[in-house]
Design brief:
The protein has 346 residues and is mainly alpha-helical. The chain has a single domain, classed as MFS general substrate transporter like domains (Growth Hormone, Chain: A, Up-down Bundle). 80% of the residues lie in helices and 0% in strands. It is globular. The two termini are 38 Å apart.
Length: 346
């Protein structure tokens, strides 16, 4: 609907998608630093408010550049929410339940994405895409109020400061960098499947808007119920889409979701366990891993749209599948003990 109104093809949508990933990737580390100084609760409130207001204003965008800027701000706001919210949930559960906390959080996020992709397709079809974004942003602002009233208070020391030496240790930690590359392998496939599958179904498979939204939501629905599957499933799932049929698109959505959900849980749990610098740096560690992965993810929508225009959808799906496969390989050759255990789980 947006492409039609702004007279854009898939390349224009690729720019808008990439701007979101640049925003959410670039502000991960600043969000982690802010959480260390102000606490995860207050940081999450700031982030939810910024993302929600930006989403609401996107409904009033007059052209594609305005939409790209607002999508960047949505990403920046979400960057301030993701890691702080994980840490808040971990603190609410008993010690030893870190994996359960991360998995629960990811499942909740994916459940929301299912509602967004399938339900919002129907809302956009009935009320228009602009009104659907206004509604979405308004609900996000209501979520900010829930954080204010129900999120646990931050217990920060009055002299909380970021130690520059500790910051350097986190940013140069090879284990965290390897984990971020593994996460990137999941993210590049998911970024393409989640953002382009509905458009692909509508324009290539001649599926209606509502049905395309439901099928595209299978990616996040599968992530919602996923178990410990191999990271190589991501590459297989993306590659299947190159067959070019409705059934291959459905299978691709399911497999990508299974790999993505498992990958997020394992990577973020492993990253938190790798933290050697105290609880005040938990958010920053997770944010750093997520930052590298998301900043890398902005390339995949641009590559995918370029390959589609130049060579067609089949070739584009296969190229993204190969990229996802190559990026997951370093985790299997890493020497650190914790990384090796993580690779075995994958």
């Amino acid at each position: 609907m947006i492409a039609s109104e702004f007279q854009q093809d898939i390349s224009g949508l690729g720019v808008v998608t990439a701007s979101f990933y640049i925003g959410i990737g670039a502000f991960q580390v600043p969000g982690g630093i802010l959480a260390a100084k102000k606490g995860p609760r207050l940081t999450a409130i700031y982030g939810t408010t910024i993302a929600s207001v930006s989403a609401l204003l996107t409904g009033f965008a007059r052209n594609l550049p305005e939409m790209a800027v607002l999508r960047f701000l949505v990403g920046a706001g979400m960057a301030l929410v993701f890691a702080p919210a994980i840490v808040l949930l971990i603190r609410l559960l008993r010690k030893g339940s870190e994996g359960l906390a991360v998995g629960t959080y990811n499942s909740a996020a994916h459940l929301g994405a299912v509602i967004g992709l399938s339900g919002w397709a129907a809302i956009a079809a009935g009320l228009g895409w602009r009104n659907s974004l206004v509604i979405s942003g308004s609900l996000g602002l209501a979520t900010s109020l829930l954080f204010v009233f129900f999120a646990p208070k931050d217990n920060l020391r009055s002299d909380s400061q970021i130690d520059l030496h500790c910051l350097k240790l986190i940013l140069s930690d090879r284990l965290l960098i390897v984990l971020s590359i593994a996460l990137l392998s999941f993210s590049v496939g998911s970024a393409v499947a989640r953002n382009f599958m509905a458009y692909y179904l509508e324009n290539v498979c001649n599926v209606g808007v509502g049905e395309a939204g439901v099928i595209a939501s299978l990616t996040v629905a599968s992530a919602f119920v996923t178990g410990p599957f191999s990271g190589r499933v991501m590459a297989v799932g993306i590659g299947i889409a190159s067959i070019g049929t409705l059934y291959s698109a459905i299978a691709s959505s399911v497999l990508v979701g299974l790999a993505y959900g498992a990958g997020l849980t394992f990577v973020f749990t492993a990253a938190r366990e790798a933290n050697r610098l105290g609880s005040e740096y938990e958010v920053l560690v997770i944010s750093w891993v997520n930052s590298l992965a998301l900043l890398g993810s902005f390339v995949s929508p641009l590559l995918f749209s370029y390959f589609v225009i130049r060579f067609g959808y089949g070739y584009a799906w296969l190229c993204i599948a190969l990229l996802a496969f190559l990026l997951v390989l370093p985790i299997f050759f890493a020497r650190e003990r914790k990384t090796t255990v993580f690779a075995h789980k994958l």
